[in-house]
Every structure is written in C-alpha cells, then in structure tokens.
C-alpha cells in the first residue's frame, strides 16, 4: 500500500522529512478495524512528532492522527462496525498513523462518519473535536445539556483547529457566552461566523480588553495556544472557583500559585490519553464522535475545514506541515485521496 513516512526527523524544508513509501497492507485482529483512507487532516501534533531530533527509525514511521474512510475488514472481536461502514476518527499516537492507503484502528475510538459530510469535510473534525469536547465537558465539567447556559468562557486561540470546534461546542451545545481570541481580520471573522460573541486580540492585553467588553472575569478559560504566554492572563480573568484547561504543553514552570486565592481549578487535556493508557472508558471517544456526527447532521455544528491541499502524497503533506509551522492557519488543513 502507498504511505507517507519518515526514517529521520528533519526540518520540513528537507524533501526527506516526509517521503512516499510502500508498506505491506496490515490485517485486523482483536477489536481493530482496517480502514481504507479517503481523507486525512494535519494537526500541530504531527509537526511536533516530526520535529528535528537525533533519532533514526529502523522501519518507516507513519504519522497522521485524523482520518475519514471506509471499513474494509474488522477483527474477530469487533462489534461496532462492519465492512462498508464509513467512519472518522483521530487515532492512537502509540501506533502507526493514518497517512497511508489502509490503516488499523481500535473501533472504540472510531465514530460513524456524519452522513451529511463528504470524507474531506469529515476528516477535518476528529482530533480537534475530541480535544475540545473533552476539555469543555470532561475536564471543566461544563454541562453538554445546556445546564450551564449563560456562563462565560474565554477561548484563547479561537481560529485554530481546536478553537474552531471549541467555539461551536461552547456556544451551540453548552449555550455559553463565548469570548474568543483572534489577531487578524480573517481569523476574527471566522471565529464570529462560528459563534463567538466577542473577539479580543491575543497579542494585546487580554484582561484589559476583557474589561472593556464587560467581562472582568469568566467562568472558564480554554487555552488552545501558548500556555506559557497566556497562563498569567487566564489566571487573572478566571472567576473564583472557576476552571482553566489547556491543551498546549508548557516550556517553563507555570505560576499555578496564581490560582490559590481563587480556589480555581487547572486541567490538562490530551486526547490520546484514553488510547495511550487503554483506559476502561476508551469507548467514550466512540460515543463522543457519534454524538458529534448527530449534531452535524442536525445542523447544530459544522465542519472546520479551512483548506484542502489535494491528493495525499509526501509533497502535499510537507506543504501542510509547513503551513502549520507558520502558525497562521485558519481552520483545518485536509488532503484527499491517494
């Protein structure tokens, strides 16, 4: 089967950083599904894993943790899907990724593809949707039934992949008042179209801007960009007994003591946790993706596709990595078909 992989970890400007390769098509066992990949999306985790380092892989490593495709075979213990079912999922960082014609994936972290979306639009969703959903509803324990309607959330990084779906979940599912950060006219417009009630610029004084729009403090803060830079502002604007959740690793120790007087909570969200540790509730990601598919088909939320770079090959995938590393993407970057 065709695949895009690496054996050395190189700058994306090097044509050997991601290369076209041929691999044997795997066979499913246990609860695995063998999926024929129709479309993939690229995320910051791809660029972080691929980042230059002194390491050589004996066998090619395949990246890619966002996919949509069709089940072609199922392991003997699989019960949720069968051959012919269209699916979408984010995958497991401890296994080979989805940048290949066929891919093995545990059915417990797979969802049925939204019926109203094609594979390209569906592939834009899984990783960021799981991340935003778990951050908002699992970590911060916001009600997914709207019981916290009217409360407020600041979403730092509103126009990125996770922010794009996070705004929709916060506004259209949780019924919160949403303040999102964006720094350019096109990213601000995107965030507003997705449901943000207010926009503030994350390159300027966030607490000051919040006060100017009438939100000196908020009930929740979601940090989807640069935890080191934005944690002090998040700590300043969070309400007493509120909650902050970040998805971005820190480079330096965080001043968590800023939260003590407010008895504010601080959470991490890493969407690979359940698959990585084979937690007893792995199947929650299957349920989550199924619910999101229902919400999409009902018109409640929409795809966050920002750009389709065309067919799945090494050249286009390197371009996707380059664009992500620039840090100015709006929505998700997707590649379709081999």
Please give a structural write-up.
The longest helix is centred in the middle third of the chain and has 14 residues, at 126-139. Helix content is 29%, strand content 28%. It is an alpha/beta fold. Helix 3 packs across helix 4 (161-173) and helix 3 (126-139) packs across helix 9. The chain has two domains: 2-125 and 273-336, Quinone Oxidoreductase, Chain A, domain 1, CATH 3.90.180; 128-268, Rossmann fold, CATH 3.40.50.720.
Label this structure with key terms:
Rossmann fold; zinc ion binding; 16 strands; 6-stranded parallel beta sheet; alpha/beta; Quinone Oxidoreductase, Chain A, domain 1; GroES-like_sf; 338 residues
At a glance:
By secondary structure, this protein is an alpha/beta fold. It has helices at residues 44-50, 119-123, 126-139, 161-173, 185-194, 206-212, 227-237, 273-277, 284-297, 314-326; strands spanning 2-9, 19-22, 32-42, 53-62, 67-74, 86-89, 102-106, 110-112, 152-156, 177-181, 198-200, 218-223, 238-246, 265-268, 305-308, 332-336.
Label the overall shape.
Answer: globular
Elements, N to C (H/E): EEEHEEEEEHHEHEHEHEHEEHHEHE
Quick one: CATH class of the largest domain?
Answer: Alpha Beta
Helical residue percent band: 25-40%
Based on CA atoms alone, the radius of gyration comes out at 20 Å
Strand content: 25-35%
For the residues shown, what is the average pLDDT? 97
The CATH superfamily label of the largest domain reads Medium-chain alcohol dehydrogenases, catalytic domain
- How many domains would you count in the coordinates? 2
Number of helices: 10
Q: If you consult CATH, what is the topology of the largest domain? A: Quinone Oxidoreductase, Chain A, domain 1
Distance between the termini: 10 Å
Identify the CATH architecture of the largest domain. Alpha-Beta Complex
Structural class: alpha/beta
Let me know the largest β-sheet. Answer: 7 strands, mixed
Organism: Caballeronia insecticola
InterPro entries: ADH-like_N, ADH_Zn_typ-1, ER, GroES-like_sf, NAD(P)-bd_dom_sf, Quin_OxRdtase/zeta-crystal_CS, Zinc-ADH_QOR/CCCR
Family: Belongs to the zinc-containing alcohol dehydrogenase family. Quinone oxidoreductase subfamily.
Keywords: Cytoplasm, Metal-binding, NADP, Oxidoreductase, RNA-binding, Zinc
